[in-house]
């Protein structure tokens, strides 16, 4: 934009003063006060966008496999985190220089984002667990189990994965992660609201309670005491209120167009007061993604977010309304688990910034993609029984006999 326009935008006074101090006339400039960071922010959206579009091309069976892959990735992350914890702060398995050196972080730099991956994986386990064990305990020992497409080995694997993920969540010592994990475990009971018989047959509450108890036993007293220490006074807890106050002041100064996506580290220090500075703490994010998005996007961000919430609410109503008879119980549960994953990540964003990491953006994109039905041509039908298979085989063989 020409100087005649951008110099009159709110919040650009400091930039205008800089040109004046340098003795240079104001040049053409973009809307964002940090255009390079804005371009990088948009480029960071390419991987989650690719994940979202890829999920739209998958049928129900492939979406189940994707969910299993994410659960497996969460389990691998837990074991990596335990190795990091065992090797100490100087572990070569810590892939980032600035990280939580005394806690497991997996493939992340921050224990909170590591915990976010785990509670998302726990919800996917909940979506898989009830139908798997319903088939496992229904009396069928071989082959494909009752029309839900479950297998005994898969049921056992999901149960073991859930134990590992719960243990990893507690060891991570993320307060928000542990609280949201409890929410995810409780939410597991509403994934099968229209299939009570299947849940009652496997006494799902007892099963889930047994898994949680087993995870606590495996953790031991030392791990639990480490977690309780995290719920003591934390300097960052006070810093979040400071960050929020300064972010709100900065957001008001650049209304209604915002400062530009990715511009928080550039504009926040100009509103930070000397009395708010905390030793050893640098505000690279607001630790409240909604306030940070308001600062960077102005009115556009909240409007887009409201539109997204309306879309999500419609999907949630459809997911818990009258069930689609063409869907297997596990596929219906995956849709509901995806809605809960989105809500948990949004709730986590009030106290942190999980969606500003590439991995969690990809998980969020995967959950959004699972809410959209696959192409009709690729949607698999329910598994055929042995009798139906024989009928179908006889029908397909009939033309060949006539031709002979």
UniProtKB/TrEMBL annotation:
It is a multi-pass membrane protein. The chain crosses the membrane at residues 37-58, 65-86, 114-137, 149-168, 174-192, 204-224, 293-312, 333-351, 363-385. It is found in: Membrane. Keywords: Ligase, Membrane, Transmembrane, Transmembrane helix. Its main location: membrane. One of its GO terms (molecular function) is ligase activity. This is O-antigen ligase family protein. PANTHER family: TEICHURONIC ACID BIOSYNTHESIS PROTEIN TUAE. InterPro entries: O-antigen_ligase-rel_domated, WaaL-like. The keyword Kinase does not apply. Residues 161-306 form the O-antigen ligase-related domain.
């Amino acid at each position: 934009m020409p100087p005649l326009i951008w110099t009159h935008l709110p919040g650009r006074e400091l930039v205008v003063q800089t040109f004046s101090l340098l003795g240079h006339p104001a040049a053409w400039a973009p809307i964002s006060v940090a255009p390079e960071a804005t371009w990088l922010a948009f480029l960071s959206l390419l991987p989650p966008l690719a994940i979202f579009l890829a999920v739209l091309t998958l049928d129900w069976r492939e979406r189940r496999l994707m969910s299993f892959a994410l659960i497996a990735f969460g389990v691998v992350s837990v074991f990596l985190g335990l190795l990091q914890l065992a090797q100490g702060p100087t572990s070569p398995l810590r892939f980032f220089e600035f990280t939580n050196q005394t806690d497991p972080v997996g493939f992340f730099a921050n224990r909170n984002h590591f915990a976010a991956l785990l509670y998302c994986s726990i919800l996917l386990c909940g979506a898989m667990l009830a139908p798997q064990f319903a088939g496992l305990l229904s009396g069928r020992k071989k082959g494909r189990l009752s029309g839900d497409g479950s297998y005994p080995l898969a049921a056992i694997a999901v149960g073991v994965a859930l134990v590992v993920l719960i243990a990893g969540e507690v060891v991570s010592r993320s307060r928000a992660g542990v609280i949201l994990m409890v929410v995810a475990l409780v939410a597991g009971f509403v994934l099968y609201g229209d299939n009570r018989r299947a849940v009652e047959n496997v006494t799902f509450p007892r099963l889930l309670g047994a898994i949680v108890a087993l995870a606590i036993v495996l953790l031991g007293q030392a791990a639990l005491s480490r977690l309780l220490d995290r719920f003591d006074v934390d300097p960052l807890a006070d810093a979040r209120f400071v960050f929020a106050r300064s972010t709100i002041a900065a957001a008001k100064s650049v209304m209604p167009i915002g400062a530009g996506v990715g511009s928080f580290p550039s504009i926040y220090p100009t509103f930070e007061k000397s009395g708010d500075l905390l030793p050893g703490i640098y505000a690279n994010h607001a630790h409240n993604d909604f306030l940070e998005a308001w600062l960077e996007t102005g009115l556009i961000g909240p409007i887009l977010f409201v539109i997204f919430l309306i879309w999500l609410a419609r999907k949630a109503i459809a997911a818990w309304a009258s069930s689609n008879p063409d869907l297997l119980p596990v596929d219906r549960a995956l849709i509901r688990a995806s809605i809960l994953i989105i809500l948990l990540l949004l709730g986590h964003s009030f106290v942190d910034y999980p969606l500003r990491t590439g991995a969690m953006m990809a998980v969020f994109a995967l959950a959004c993609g699972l809410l959209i039905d696959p192409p009709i041509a690729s949607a698999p039908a329910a598994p055929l029984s042995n009798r139906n298979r024989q009928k179908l085989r006889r029908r397909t063989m009939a033309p060949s006999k006539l031709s002979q």
